[in-house]
Structures are given as C-alpha cells and as structure tokens.
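In response to a reviewer's request, we include the raw inputs and outputs for one of the modeled complexes. The two entities were modeled together in a single run.
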Amino acid sequence: MKLWRSIRGTLDAFWITLRTLFRRPATIAWPEKRRAPAERFRARIVLTRDPQGKERCVACYLCSAACPVSCISMQSAEAPDGRRYAAWFRINFARCIFCGLCAEACPTRAIQMTPDYEMCRRDPLSLLYEKEDLLIDGPGKDPHYDFYRHAGIGVAAPRGTLPGERPPEDPGSLLP
Amino acid sequence: MPTLTIDGRTVSVPEGKTILEAAEAAGVRVPHFCWHRALGALGACRLCAVTVLDGPQKGVRMACLTPVQEGMRVSTLDESSWNMRRSVIEWLMANHPHDCPVCDEGGECQLQDMTVAGNHAVRRQRGRKRTFHNQDLGPFIEHEMNRCIACYRCVRTYRDYCGGDDFGVLGSRDRVYFGRFRPGRLLSPFSGNLVDVCPTGTLTDKTSRFRARPWDLEEASSVCPHCALGCAVIPGGRYRELLRVRADPRPQPNDGFLCDRGRFGYGYANRADRPRQARLEGRPGTLAEAVAALRERVEGIARQHGPEAVLLLGSARATVEANALLSLWARRLGAADPVFDLAARRDGAARIFARAAPALRATLADVRQADLTLVCGADPLAEGPLLALALRQAARRGAAVRVIDPRPVPLVCEAERLPLAPTLVPEALRFLAGGNGAGLSQEVLQPLAETKRLFDAARRPVVIGSAEGLGPDGVRALLALVAGASRPDRDAKAALLLPGPSSFACARLASAVPNAQDLRRRLGGGKIRAVVALEVDPLAEAPPAVTGVIEKAELFAALDYLPTATVGRANLFLPSAGPYEQDGAFCDFAGRLRAFARVLRPGTPILHTGKGNHPPRTFSPDVPGGDAAPAWEILAEILGISGGLSGARAEIEKAFSFLQGLAGLRADARDERVLPGGEPPAPPGAPAGPEPAGLRLLLSDPFVGWEPLSAHAAVLEVLRPEDAVYLNPAELARLGLAPGARARVEAQELSEIRVARAADLPPGLAWVVRRRGSALSRLPAGEVFACRVAREEGA
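The model returned the following structure tokens for the whole complex.
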C-alpha cells in the first residue's frame, strides 16, 4: 500500500506539470505587458485638492493616528486666511502596507489611494514622499466635496452665509 | 454618613454630598459638562441625568444637584436617564459646527467623547445652525463661539474662581455669548485656565494653535519652574519642541489651576538663539570636552591658588540635585559654600525660614483654608501668582485679607491695605505678636490694633511675607508671630515667598550663618580666579562691584539653557537641559520636595532644523543640538558619581541628612517629602546701618519681565509692565515731575530713565519694578538704597 501511494504521488506531480505545459500561463510579462488594476485597488497614496483647487488636507493628524505602521508624519500650521494646513507632510512608502486606513480616517477626503502600484525603488530615501510628491492637481474621488463649506467656522465664506447656517447672532439683543 | 447604591455598588459619603460626587467615590462615571471639582455644580448642561430608583424623589434627577440620602438606589444605566442623556447630546450637537478636524480640542474634547458615548452620529434636526462672531481675546486664548455648549464653566472660572471681571456672559435664550464686552486681551493673570476648564474647543490655547494633537504629545508629571510655589503641571512637547503646559487636574497643591506665567511662559525652551553647543574659550566643542576642562581648570586653580580662589554660584532655578552636588563639589574642593543668592538680605531671610518648624510653614492648601490672611511686605501676584489665587479662595470662604505693604499690592480679592514704609513692616509684625509698637505712628497703630484683634480671634490665620520684602529681621518677626499664636486649638502658619523653585532647598543647603559680610570679603580680596555659574545670570542680577570680580576671573564657566548675558561672556560654557528636559526635584516654598519627570529630550526643535519645512532627509544617529545634559548629570560626572540620577541622589542623601527621602520620590505619584526644620541661625551681632536719608529706592518684581524663564518667552512680552518710577503724588509735585514725564532715577551709581507715575505710596519712596537688562534691577533685592529722581530734559 505504502509503496503504491509513493509511486502515485510521484507520478501525479509529473502529470500536473505535463498537463499545465500546454495551457496559457497565468502570469504576464511585466513590464512589457501591464494589467489594469481594479478601480478600488489600494496603492500609492495621494493628497487631493478641493473643487477650488486648494489643498484639502487640514493636517488633523487622523491619518497618522490611524496608520498601523506609523508611516505618516506631518506638521500642522495656520495659513493667513485661517485655514489649517500641513506645513510638511511625509509618507514613508518603505514602511507603508497600503491598508487604506488613512484614507478611511480622512475627514476631508484629502488622502486617497490610487491604483498605481509601480513604485519600487532601491534607495529607501527615494521612497520617502514629501507633500510636493503627494499632492495632485485634482479632487480625485468625491470631486465636489469641500470640507470648509460644511465646517461652520467661517473659513470658506463669511460666518453665517453658507447654506445650513443662520446669520451671526447679536448677543447684545434682548429680543425673544 | 448616608449609604446608597449606585449601579449595584454600595458607597457611603458624608452628608451634603451629591449623587455625582458619590458616584465618583464609588468609581462610577457619570457624564457631565458643567460640574467641575473646583467650581461645583450648576445644573446647566443636564447631562448628568441619573435615575433614582429608590429614594424620596424617584425618577430622572440631575446627579450634580441631588444630595444623597440614606438608602437611595441610583442607576446610571436605566433607560429613562440614558435616553435623556442621549437627547442632551443630540440637542447640544444640533448647533455644534462640523469642524473637529480643524479644532485644537479634538482628541481631548469632552463633547467629542460624550457624542461618541451617546451614540450620536447623524444630525436629525433639519434647521440651520446658529452662528456667532468670534472675538480677539489677546495672544493667549483663541475664541470660537460656534462651538460653545453654554456650560458656564468659563465664566465661573474667570469671574468666581480667578476674580477677573472683563469676561462674562451676554445675550439671552439660545444665543448666550461668552466673551468680553469689547474684543481685547483678557486682563486676568489667570486667563489661561479657561483653556483647561472649557470642555469643548470654544476657548483653546492660542500659543500652541494648530501645532499638535494631544495623542501625539509627550507628556509627564512635572513641577512648574517659574516660581517657588511648586504647582503641579503637565507640560507637553513634540518634535523636540515644548508646545504647551497644562495644570495637573489633581487638587494638590494648586487645585488644578495655573497662572499665565506658568502656562504660557514655556517659550524659553524653544528659542532659536538658545545656546545648545559647549564653548571653550570661544571655540565650539563637545560637552564631554567642556566637562573635562571645567573639572581640570577648577581643580587646578584650587590647587595652585587655594580653594578660596573658587567661587561657585548656585541657582534658585536649577534642580535640588544640581545645587546639592554643587555644595558637595565645594566641600570636596575645600572651598566655601556656593553662593545661592547674590542678594544677601533676601538670602538671609530665606535661610531663617528654611529652618522653621514644618508645622509653621503654610502650603497653598493652608492658604485656601485660612480664615484670616495677612500679606506683609509681599506681592503674591508677582512673586507667586497662585498664592494670590489661593488668597482669593480663602476670601471667598469668608476670610479677611489684610495687606501691610508700602506698595499698592494688586490682589484678585477684596483686601484692606495699610501702607507702611518697608522698614516698619517687621515692627508691625512684632506689634501683632504682642509688642509695644515702638516706632509706629498713632495712625498706623489704630488699624494695626484692629488687625491684631482679628488675628487673635482667627483659628487658621496665615501670614504671608516675602524673603525680599521682609529681610532676616522681618522673617524672625513673622515666625515669632505664628509660633506664638499656635495653640492646640489654633493653627497659625506662615508662608514666605522665595525667588525660585529650588530656593528653599538652596537656603537649607547653605550654612545657617548669613554670609553677606563673608561674600563681600571674598569678592573684595581680589582672590577669586574661578567662577562657576550654575544656571544663574549674575551679570544681569548683581551690582557692578560683584560683576567686575566675576568678569575679571581667569575662568568664568557657565552652565545654562537660556541665552543670558552671563552665557555670552563666559569663557567656558556647558549647555544644560531645561527643567522639562530632565528628571529631578524642586523644593517648594513650604519646604516640600517634589520630583518631576522628563517631558522631552533636549535638542533643536524640528521646526528650526527643518526651517519650517519637513525635517532634513538625512540619516544620523545624533540629535541636532542634543548635546545638553541635566546640570546634575554634569556635576555628577565632575564628582565621579556614577549610577545616573539614583546614584547622585544616594550620594546627596549621604552628604545632606535633611534631604533624606529624595531618592524615593516618584514624579507620577506626585510624592512629596517635607524638609525638616533646623537650628535657626543666630541674629546678627551688629545692627543694620543707619537708614539712608531722603528718597529711598524700593525695587520689586513684576508678574512678567524679571523671572528668568518667562522673561525669555516672547509671547509674554505683552504682559511686561511699563518702565516706570512710582512716587507719592506729593513727592512727584515736589520734584517738579508731571505724571508721564521722563525721569532719571539714580542709586548706587547706577541710573536709568523711567516714566514718572503717581501711586499710593508712603512719602519718601521711589518704587521701581525690575526688568531684565535694566541697570537699577542689578541692585541686590531687599536692600534699601538712597536714590535720586530728577526730571530728564530733552529727548
């Protein structure tokens, strides 16, 4: 019995090799041929802009807090117009595991995942992406979303002028 | 003691406590916004709803307002109160902006926590949100009124607890507005507490606006280094930059409150011009080189010219460990004790107080509980601001506050003041202790007799003085007064304001004999060849007679972390770590040793190394500017003591028996250790010299501008007082000066130009408030000098 099983095990493997020899291969000859990944493929991270072309990122630190491998670091700062923005923003792609938790945590839709996975480098320093490397020109997914138009603190437009806001109250008035 | 059950846990609390306090005691968390341990209950937010299942008033009740009763059964998880709390959150969120990502409170926001806890995720209300205009509240506090939930904590803190009157509540119904009548800087010196008490992002810290999230901050239990009170603080830093300081919410010692100097005065640690590199004769070097050079050269000079050629200067702002090791070094060299305070009279006063019985020394809690407080020759708001706040709490409980001082001392509570020339204050204290009041005029004796009646009737009186204002004679009178008044049924205590966080320990480390003459002899002999300044700036704080000797020394070594004049002139410089960059201990004004833990490692902030942009893209194991080491570590290295802080502490305990217990102190547990009393120094044989005739100069400290750390914090510039000389209005007229005129003030061959102002002072006094860098400020604290004030023509 034992001997028969061993012979069969040996021949089975040869049979599978022989059978697959005449099939079309599953792999493709990258980089001569390229495959289009799925639309929601999670690869290289970008920072998007709002419909007005301003940076969406408000440097709230939620992505860096959510990141399980701590590959995102940044410094928030205040612009003269009252916007909170990232003075610098760095993603260490040598460490990134492309889990997408940062994009999920982002409250302003600034950080998004793209399907571009071709970013291997030999020098780890070239995998350190700064803000200017990450920032793209368009809004990416959710093209109409503008955080500051919903924030309600008068940065995108004077206070109380956006839909959903009442005009500013006059605390001096005692009218009912 | 009623016993009640909360969520199945049985707890007994004293009569008069509320359900909320009982729940805290039982370990059950009842959500709340408006209730605050130090501010009490108000019932404004309605969030602390609980269900009383069994008791005189059944149903949903506010936990913060309902007193406990025997046999009560309370549930926080009952559906009716749970639903109530959930709807409270929903209505609070109906108008709250959708801006958590750009709100600095995010991450430590009580409203955020309660919204998550209340399961509120979707706004069902369809109406539009209410908005307000914000106000510019000055450089410390950021205002975002749209975020307000009207818990009234800010008003109760600012007006009731801190005694400010320029912030309040305006408007009616759902548009109540918390702010000032007109936009402008909040004037209270305790305005920063609004940041800590506000449960939302309405009032946030402007000095660290948009800098970091609380979860990214490196924090540790520390002790405030800005005065001698030893307030418990929790500083936070990130990327080698100190970003904020908040009060430790625990009740002791400072009741969870801080002054603006302690909270916003942290900028000295991040200065771009902070000296971070060792310097040997003008040449940059490593710290190890500088330490070796310091040891070799000091020991060499001591060998060659005798130990009297070495002058060691200790510091009120260095740690207790560093000062103790400096004393130990002096001992090993055979040199005289380090000079811990160049102002001999203030030093003498501190040395007497540091040897008083521990039972006589008042803490901040004692001041808050006092039923009579006397402030004699002290300006609490400048020398120990939280003491002024503690005085206010005593006054709110009904204590009378009496001030005996030449200056119109500003306080944050009602006080009755008796203007008295500085030299008469000790005599007034002796009169209160039962003396005959020789030298005091009749119009002074009458109010003093009234104060004495109050003092004799008080059960917990606290007498507050300052080492600078009272001098050795005054401190003796102060201690005699409280020692004579202490009886089993009466608890009289004394507090003495000292210049820095280690002053008490320094005064204890110094020998009991005041060495004013000794110092003068040492400096005058022309023997000093080596001067070591440990975190002290003698060139800005000492008169020319002293600084001349120091500058002429063959070796002038300085250890510091501030860009002081001394650091600039020293020919051997060693960068030391700031108070929040090391483990160590301070000793507060009541002689309580408290340890603090390191918040950050020293190093140039990434803000500076990256020049505002991202950190440099280089790999290096070295921290830029990270050569600085704690002063105790440098001195331990010189003394050959190994074993880090515990080794140094063990050695210190061996050498100084009164510092026993130093090694066992834990910073996070807020341990404290009371220094024992000692043999009081004998009164000096020779009486003080004759008082100078004519106009006398009275120097005192401001809230901001003299204390060395906050004087190096740029954001506090706005609080720096005007360079003025204050005179009695009659005196002003006699000198031919109009208020606002420029006057030249001259004393001890130092002179400067100041603006003449009228103030309610006794005649014959010219009062000048110190400023770092001003000529007159170099005169030794606490001494009386003849001075001349004349109109400055031209310019």
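As requested, we also summarize the result in words. The domain at 45-149 of chain A is CATH 3.30.70.3270 (Alpha-Beta Plaits). Chain A touches chain B through 44 residues (CB under 8 Å).
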